[in-house]
């Protein structure tokens, strides 16, 4: 027996824990098998991390069982409308989080919150979310974050967040929280058509008791599979953010290195830097190809330099493109958030490209196709 259980063993454990047997549709078993194999082959984790990692996998399987049980008891959920959504994506560290946090202040959007993703059943109830224990637990977890991690990444409790858990329930998520390079290679080329169909199934459930139904999504990793995402949400419109990749790649590598579980020994950060740079580059290649298939008219490009230098003008341009009125109250809330959370307000994220075996010149050379395609400004 290897260090990690096989997929069938985890499925059996989840079924026993939940007292349920229907895991629902999709090809999640393939993703789970690839993930476990990669963890055993590529992982460098300390054995002390194993229990928490496997508990996350099991929780996601239990979530699947509970979603199907809820649908069985509430078949009307399948008729819940999903308008939009508006999807914010692009390379990470390009302003996706800031833009999502600002637009989440508009009550016309239904946000995909992190705390409701961790356990979707029962769906949250409008007007009673302040008392939801999932939200309280999430708040407590954020309060325990170190000042260093706060400087690296802001988290707003009720803003839309990456759909890490929804894709994780399908075991077709990017999985940048584990050192599983073999899984990353497989995932980049995987067909996520069934994954995003299941994604919509869970989104309907989450929205069934909590309006509105115009959804706001945000996830840099969406750029890898835009065609599958658009197939699941035919009315979706995309806001893609851009920034100098020489700033993006080292910053994201630093973030990933800080959220990976502890290694058994010293982790090779230079290898990690190379892997992430190649990963993100391939993602942008996928995105450019997919945009031509999905339709360029469904995309609005927003540059980080404009979001920082002229947040008011940038937000107004986005709302005009979406055909939404930007009310004075919402605009004031957005600009107030931007002022309070301007770059550096939470501290300084310190890193160098060189500590990850990277250089600005090499990154810009590797991403020259991206810089030219979107006329991305280079930063000093």
Automatic annotation (TrEMBL):
InterPro entries given in the database record: P-loop_NTPase (IPR027417), Stf3_sulfotransferase (IPR052736)
GO MF annotations in UniProt: transferase activity
Family matches, as Pfam families: Sulfotransfer_3
Gene3D superfamilies xref list: P-loop containing nucleotide triphosphate hydrolases
Keywords: Transferase
The name this protein goes by in its record: Sulfotransferase
Native source species: Pseudofrankia asymbiotica
Phylogenetic placement of the source organism: Bacteria, Bacillati, Actinomycetota, Actinomycetes, Frankiales
